Sequence to fold (113 residues):
Amino acid sequence: MVRTPLTPEERLRGERLGALLRAARGERSMAAVAASAGISAETLRKIETGRAPTPAFFTVAALAGALGLSLDEILGRCAAEEAVASAGRPAQVAAERPAPVAAVAPAAVPLIA
Fold:
């Protein structure tokens, strides 16, 4: 399977995510945060340095939990900077932004007995 090359915006978003996680980690060691999130220190290093600009959702969720960040906070901080970076294209950014999960999720999920 051939992977589609990342756009410059995707690379920048990955760098912003890495910087946010690195700042949230503070003085804690990379190994301690990685272990707390259940990932390898090398994976965390790649994300923080931007070498893995599109980590899996569950990896980001695990890191958010280990660092005491909410996914909303991560999205808000990365999206806010993205909107500033693309100020010349506000209509396009709004059209590309996915709808909030609450808007597309069903109101109630039936339980299987």
Q: What stands out?
A: The two ends are 39 Å apart (CA to CA).
